[in-house]
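Here is one chain, start to finish.
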Amino acid sequence: MKRILGLDLGTNSIGWALVAQNFEEKQGEILGMGSRIIPMSQDILGEFGKGNSVSQTAERTGFRGTRRLRERHLLRRERLHRILNILGFLPKHYSSQIDFENRLGKFKREMEPKLAFNNKEFIFKKSFEEMLVDFKKCQPQLLEEGKLIPYDWTIYFLRKKALSQKIEKEELAWVILNFNQKRGYYQFRGEEEEENPNKLVEFYSLKIIDIKAEETNKKGETWYSLILENGWVYRRSSKTDLYDWKDKVRDFIVTTDLDEDGSIKRDKEGNEKRSFRAPKEDDWTLIKKKTEQEIDHSSKTVGAYIYDTLLQNPSQKVKGKLVRTIERKFYKEELKAILEKQKAFHPELTDEGLYNECVRELYRNNDAHQWALSKKDFTHLFLEDIIFYQRPLKSQKFNIGKCSLEYRNFRINGERKTKYLNAVPKSNPYYQEFRVWQWMYNLKIYKKEDEVDVTGQFLSNIEDWENLFEFLMRQKEVDHKIILKHLLTSKELKGKALNAETAKYRWNYVYDSVKDESKNIPVMKLVMKSGED
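Its structure:
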């Protein structure tokens, strides 16, 4: 008797049957059968049917990320409430609905007051009337026939006004809490995008003045050179004709390679190293760079930019249209300018006694942090410690493995114990040097003609090894041609003679087949990058 397991795999179920079968006597029986139903919603089932794999935990992960963002926003708001209450900046109807005794900084249960509204009545009418004066000058038709202007636009008016004039304490509290809601995009921990000196990413809207078709590759794609109005050349391949792009203005994301001194890098022909991307209109990076450039060119803060745009075009939608996602530095610089200006009008913002009281309120049991913040001011407290605070990265030392060779023996209560030491991290410079030396000592050079090991001819003494080590430590990546050309430089060969001599040898490392895109020919290459095995 043979036992056979049969499986019926469906889109959201697995059927099974275990049978015993004697093929000679043509006898058999079913030992067991059943099915396992995989619970899947209709949308996931539809994607699965199309061949798109959907993780069952992806949706939960998305919701968890949303919860974390909300919880951190609420935590920042609670901390701001506690500080603004000590300063006396919160309106009475608003602070009376916040619990400062038990649930520090949180709203009392079943309450969610609006700072700018008291019983549905807008409390900053004076500033609203000042804003209407601007609209009467720029858009008089808006106020005709009983038309109304939203009260919410007052926040943008106050953000602009606060840069040069005094605003009331309650208005400043409204502005500060508004920055807690909209903080900008921040991707890198501990570094800003502009701190990368090697890349410059910019947005350009340029007119295409000429188009030249070049060669066609094996995929049937034609390479085009698009001449832009400023003299730049944008090369791209396309299966469709691009001549209809001529005399049209297109949006580009341009990435320029820079040297350490900030100058533009150049290739062997002396051309500037610059890459182009012409994304679609709804591309996230395009929208971000375009918005940032418009704000930069206006020489205004984000709030002033929004307010002046509304003055010129009141029908402009702000959220999701005028300003979608921009770098955090724009909001940070604006709030810093507002606080520094308002210090001249509100002595509470320069009172050291109030400042130390606020610090003690936030860090009641953390004397070390109290002492560290005592040397700062309210601008630092609002910006760096509350609104734009970014927690440091967690230590990853627990991920470092144990060395299998180095250990220490000791006794605990008479029992002998062995503890293996931590291995060095891959990012450690000592490990990088060790890795390069290990790679060098495993390197072998062979003649292609008779497969004779000729490594000793190239690396015959200590100086040769040291020169090769210094050469490798300066390289980002290497292939066999680069190594052989370096080793053959002692023969003072150049140009075609050097290439011909290089072709006579090979190394012992595994070759990976890749294609030279410029010539469409296969080449053999092994890449050795820093920090990777």
